[in-house]
């Protein structure tokens, strides 16, 4: 009769208990043919091995794989697992006034968009002459270009001076008479000057410089800028009749909705950083603003209005952001003064446009707009600071799991 499953289970339990407890006989004892003394000695050794293993298991666990430990591979030491746990180790607490200073970039751009909208409303309602708007904008653009050209000249002179210093140091270093110990400090100084000159290189380098021309590179750059301005001016004069009739078959409600969404895209996708590289392409913001000005200009009555508004949009959305970024890099007080000017102008123009008033409404708008802007900046900064307490980034001695996504399997 074959043995039942209960018989096998009892035998397995007996073997397991004998393996764990040295007082019981092990299965190999039934086949051991030695003397009783040798059998007792083997039982004693087995008991010592179990005792030593239990002591080793109570020892300190080390996260090392190059030596054998009495722990399984997936063992987790509950006592020391959370000893090196760190919460938000790289978090830098925000400061209120630094956030206020950084938010001025956003305030400047939003104020510029508000000034453009108020200018269009004033031109559309025939409160302001379009020629006066574009004349003042062109004058401010020309003054900003003069200041920008002065800054570029300063950067080029600094680079030229640093290159001259590097050349002088290289000429002073003799080639054969000095030993290696005396040459080494001067060579390190030369490397430092070379690094400084490379880091001070201006970010704007004109591609229109002709080495065979009789004009200096600076004058060539100025001439190229003047040619570009005249080309834009002539192109807008030729395209103004076409832009005026561009959306003749579209209702005004659709134009207002499209322009609103495009200006919101301009604010959302604008590059508010200080560096040249941006996560999102700046062309999205610029193109959406120019498209909004194009569809808005098609609602104006004459080609002069269309030309003025389109040129004003190019100046305020295409050229003005470049000047603002350069001004912030050069002078913080100038950046702050420009922010105050834009906020007061946008507040006064917006309040005068909404109420239909003149001087009194303008003054009230300046005061209310400044207060509302300052309160919004402060509340947003405090809100951002309060959100830091919810940041919970854990770091520890374990290796983070980083999945590798393969495009194809070989």
What can you see in these coordinates?
The protein is mainly alpha-helical and 410 residues long. The chain has a domain at 104-153 and 218-267 and 281-393. The chain contains 12 helices and 2 strands; from the N terminus they run ααβααααααααααβ. A two-stranded antiparallel sheet has the order 1-2. The two termini are 56 Å apart.
Number of strands: 2
Strand content: under 5%
Termini separation (Å)?
A: 56 Å
Based on CA atoms alone, the radius of gyration comes out at 39 Å
**Order of the strands making up the biggest sheet:** 1-2
> Which structural category fits the helices and strands?
mainly alpha
Low-confidence stretches: 1-9, 11-20, 175-205, 276-280
The number of helical segments is 12
Largest sheet: 2 strands, antiparallel
Overall mean confidence score, pLDDT: 77
Write the element-wise H/E pattern from the N-terminal end onward: HHEHHHHHHHHHHE
The best one-word shape is elongated
Work out the helicity level.
Answer: 55-70%
Summarize the structure.
This protein is mainly alpha-helical and 410 residues long.
Which key phrases capture this entry?
elongated, glycosyltransferase, glycosyltransferase activity, mainly alpha, 410 residues, transmembrane, disordered N terminus, two-stranded antiparallel ribbon, single chain, 12 helices, 66% helix, 2 strands
Secondary-structure topology with pairs:
Blueprint: H1 5-20, H2 36-57, E1 86-87, H3 96-102, H4 104-124, H5 130-172, H6 180-199, H7 217-244, H8 252-268, H9 282-297, H10 303-330, H11 332-355, H12 359-386, E2 394-395
Antiparallel strand pairs: 1-2
């Amino acid at each position: 009769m074959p043995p039942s499953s209960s018989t096998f289970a009892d035998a397995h339990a007996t073997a397991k208990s004998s393996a764990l407890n040295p007082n019981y006989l092990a299965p190999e004892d039934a086949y051991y043919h030695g003397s009783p003394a040798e059998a007792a000695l083997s039982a004693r050794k087995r008991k010592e091995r179990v005792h030593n293993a239990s002591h080793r298991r109570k020892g300190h666990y080390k996260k090392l794989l190059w030596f054998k430990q009495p722990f399984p591979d997936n063992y987790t030491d509950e006592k020391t697992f959370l000893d090196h746990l760190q919460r938000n180790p790289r978090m830098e607490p925000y400061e209120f006034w630094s956030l206020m200073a950084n938010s001025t970039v956003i305030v400047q751009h939003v104020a510029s968009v508000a000034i453009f909208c108020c200018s269009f409303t004033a031109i559309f309602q025939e409160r302001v002459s379009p020629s006066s708007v574009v004349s003042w904008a062109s004058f401010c653009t020309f003054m900003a270009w003069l200041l920008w050209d002065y800054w570029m000249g300063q950067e080029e002179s600094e680079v030229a001076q640093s290159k001259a210093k590097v050349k002088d140091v290289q000429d002073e270093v003799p080639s054969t008479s000095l030993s290696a110990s005396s040459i080494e400090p001067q060579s390190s100084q030369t490397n430092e000057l070379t690094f400084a000159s490379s880091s001070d290189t201006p970010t704007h380098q004109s591609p229109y410089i002709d080495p065979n021309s009789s004009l200096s590179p600076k004058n060539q750059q100025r001439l190229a800028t003047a040619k570009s301005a005249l080309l834009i001016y002539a192109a807008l004069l030729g395209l103004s009749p076409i832009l005026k009739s561009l959306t003749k078959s579209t209702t005004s409600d659709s134009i207002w909705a499209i322009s609103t969404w495009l200006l919101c895209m301009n604010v959302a996708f604008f590059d508010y950083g200080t560096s040249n590289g941006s996560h999102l392409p700046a062309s999205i913001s610029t193109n959406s603003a120019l498209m909004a000005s194009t569809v808005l200009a098609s609602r104006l009555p004459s080609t002069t209005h269309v030309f003025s508004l389109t040129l004003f949009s190019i100046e305020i959305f295409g050229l003005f952001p470049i000047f603002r970024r350069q001004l912030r890099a050069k002078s913080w007080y100038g950046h702050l003064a420009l922010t105050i000017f834009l906020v007061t102008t946008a507040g006064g123009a917006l309040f005068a446009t909404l109420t239909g008033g003149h001087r009194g409404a303008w003054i009230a708008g300046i005061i209310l707009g400044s207060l509302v802007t300052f309160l919004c900046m402060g509340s947003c900064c405090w809100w951002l600071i309060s959100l830091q307490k919810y940041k919970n980034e854990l770091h520890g001695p374990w290796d983070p799991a980083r999945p590798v996504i393969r495009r194809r399997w070989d």
